[in-house]
């Protein structure tokens, strides 16, 4: 739910963040991820408890260099807030990736000092990238995060289990997948199931959850597939869709 900084008040997170976070928590999600606005305006003290991952980097869609994610918060602030982890967005393949790699290295060291888990969003994106889902570039992006000390790596689904298995095999840290384009419930669960079967550690979905007709049911179905090893058809039947 870090989209508000980049895209503004899009559908699902226009204003009442606490309501959406409550729906996600009811579904069984482990955590929500977002900027400082999440804990300030909608996280703790409302409905079921849910983990908080504080996002530390960002840019806006209005920037001429929107692929350049700068540091907008720090690990100490996350500690003060009682966050369960922090995250960074790094684009590999753009002309500003040296600056972002420096940020990742510095934040990784701070995380080890404070014992704070670090989730690195690693996307092959920019001037040197033709296909963001090409296994060859996704493998590099994921491995970079592990080499610099990330505890969890979020990256693109490569389109099929066999190629994604290469990404997992080449990364020392657990790998979770991003949501990508809007998909149907079955499509979302199928990709999730395929990623888990080849060693993926979970998912980090945004718009496919908070822009869904029933976010709670979507999260519940994902929970059943990721944590309970349900088949896709079983999960859909369980949630009544």
Verbal overview:
- The protein is α/β, with parallel strands linked by helices and 241 residues long.
- The chain has one domain (3-239): Aldolase class I (TIM Barrel, Alpha-Beta Barrel).
- The protein has eleven helices and nine strands.
- The protein has helices spanning 3-7, 17-27, 37-41, 75-81, 97-114, 135-147, 161-169, 185-197, 207-210, 215-228, 232-239; strands at residues 31-34, 51-55, 57-58, 70-71, 85-92, 118-124, 152-155, 175-178, 202-204.
- A seven-stranded parallel beta sheet has the order 1-2-5-6-7-8-9. Strands 3-4 form a two-stranded antiparallel sheet.
- It is globular, with a radius of gyration of 17 Å.
- It starts with a helix and ends with a helix.
Show the helix and strand layout.
Blueprint (H helix, E strand, L loop, with lengths): L2 H5 L9 H11 L3 E4 L2 H5 L9 E5 L1 E2 L11 E2 L3 H7 L3 E8 L4 H18 L3 E7 L10 H13 L4 E4 L5 H9 L5 E4 L6 H13 L4 E3 L2 H4 L4 H14 L3 H8 L2
Helix pairs in contact: 2-10, 6-7, 8-10, 10-11
Span of the ends, CA to CA: 25 Å
Mean pLDDT: 94
Q: Quote the beta fraction.
A: 15-25%
Gyration radius from CA atoms, angstroms:
17 Å
Structural class: alpha/beta
Largest sheet, spatial ordering of strands: 1-2-5-6-7-8-9
Anisotropy-based shape: globular
């Amino acid at each position: 739910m870090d989209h508000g900084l980049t895209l503004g008040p899009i559908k699902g997170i226009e204003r009442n963040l606490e309501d959406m976070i409550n729906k996600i928590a009811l579904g069984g999600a482990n955590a929500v991820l977002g900027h400082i606005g999440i804990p300030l305006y909608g996280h703790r003290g409302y409905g079921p408890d849910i983990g908080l991952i504080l996002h530390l980097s960002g840019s806006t869609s209005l920037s001429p260099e929107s692929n350049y994610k700068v540091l907008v918060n720090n690990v100490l602030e996350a500690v003060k807030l009682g966050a369960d982890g922090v995250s960074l967005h790094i684009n590999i393949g753009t002309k500003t990736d040296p600056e972002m790699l420096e940020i990742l290295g510095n934040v990784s060291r701070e995380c080890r000092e404070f014992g704070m888990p670090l989730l690195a969003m690693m996307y092959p994106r920019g001037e040197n990238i033709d296909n963001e889902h090409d296994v060859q570039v996704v493998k590099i992006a994921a491995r970079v995060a592990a080499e610099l000390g990330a505890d969890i790596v979020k990256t693109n689904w490569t389109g099929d289990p066999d190629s994604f298995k290469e990404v997992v095999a080449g990364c020392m840290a657990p790998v979770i997948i991003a949501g990508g384009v809007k998909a149907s419930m079955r499509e979302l669960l199928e990709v999730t199931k395929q990623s888990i079967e080849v060693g993926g550690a979970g998912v980090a979905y945004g718009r496919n959850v908070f822009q869904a007709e029933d976010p709670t049911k979507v999260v519940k179905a994902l929970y059943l597939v990721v944590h309970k090893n349900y088949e896709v058809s079983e999960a859909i039947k369980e949630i009544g869709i």
